[in-house]
Specification:
The protein is α/β, with parallel strands linked by helices. The chain has helices at residues 4-21, 26-50, 53-75, 80-98, 120-128, 179-182, 208-211, 239-243, 252-261, 278-285, 295-301, 313-318, 323-334, 350-357, 362-375, 386-392, 402-408; strands at 104-109, 133-137, 142-147, 153-159, 186-189, 200-202, 217-220, 246-249, 272-274, 305-311, 340-346, 379-380, 395-398, 414-416. Strands 2-1-5-7-8-9 form a six-stranded parallel beta sheet, with helices on both faces. It has a five-stranded parallel beta sheet with strand order 12-11-10-13-14, with helices on both faces. A three-stranded antiparallel beta sheet has the order 4-3-6, covered by helices on one side. The mean pLDDT is 92. One of its GO terms (molecular function) is CDP-glycerol glycerophosphotransferase activity. One of its GO terms (cellular component) is membrane. Keywords: Transferase.
Length: 425
Amino acid sequence: MLSRKTRSQIIELIETVRGGLVCQNTKERAAMLDECIAALSVSEDVCGTELPAERFEQYKDTMDTVKTAMLQLKADPEAEEIVTLSLQLMGWLLEQLKNEPVKKEIVFLPYKASMWDSLESIWKAAYEDKEHCNTYVIPIPYAELVQDAQGQLALHSWHCDINEMPDYVPVIDNETVNLEEMHPDVIYIHNPYDNTNYVTSVDLRYYSSELKKYTDKLIYVPYFVVVGGQLDPDFATKPGVINADHVIVQDENIKEQYEKYYPGGNPPKGKFLALGSPKFDKVMTSKREDYTLPKEWQEIVKDKKIVLYNTSVGTALRHTEKICDKLRFVFDVFKGRNDAALWWRPHPLMESTLRSMRPEVLEEYEALKNQYIKEGWGIYDDTADLDRAIICSDAYYGDISSVVELYKKTKKPIMIQNMELVGIR
């Protein structure tokens, strides 16, 4: 199957050949015949590479006939009946090409590499269907935000996680792509916020309000799974939800809630699709042998049960005054144990969130984190690979978050921490 770009290039070549044939000056026409034959040969070679054999034969027969006719024109430039035949054949070629099915051009725009699992299974299916799809993974830049002295949002730093993406995912530098010119058939996003987030913001070129101009279909896939089957109504009103042509959600229950809380309560038919979450797909298809831990981590967990300790930004915002005391308590429980190892994985945006919304505890939090890392008795995981932590651990401890919903799929033990209990063992 031809790509859309290739089809356009072939059509342009054939239209150029046709333009050469309609020259009124027979000497000019004769001078162009070699170039016309070469252009048809290039078109034929491309079709032979990208089209199924039976489909290619239809084009090949016609192109070969046109090339033979042009060779006769070289011998007799005045033979207008040959010109007429050639123009008719090329008219047929152009009509066929304009109706020739093309590969879908599908773009994925992850921003945080740690959230790539919300798109991965969709990308993988399209990537492996090379007959029908061309896929492009373009990690996009995002800014961390802080509140200034007047309480206004200000830029703290810019990031792009292109180097944190999995090695098996081909990625493209966003600076080399013009989406407006490319105009892909489909764009997938997992950031719905545009300018409504207090912690991070993607570059405004990648706001959903802009992207919808550059594609036939904008699709939003939530970067999270809903906890406890209850959707926060606010999530149904985000710009990415409003601007997307489709929103893929984890199940029918969540679909009904998105429809209920959508502004006006009457979303376009087919906007919300209960197709499951790629985050569940990733967990359910991964195995422990798929992962190799760093040597220093292997030493930490050797002959021990591994407890994944997940701390969420939601809990940090609700219990700001207690988070540091709770961390000290948990570290004290696990430090020095011979039977259990702690695998601490804070939310990827934990420090960004504290810096923007709870700056009064940031210094103490960072000091605790740095001490934990320096002592080296437990794992500190700030990588993009959440699934490795879920698959390689033996039990979950920590906050209520979407990670719990993923962990349930493993059938391993789960314990939710109580922020009120500090110092009780």
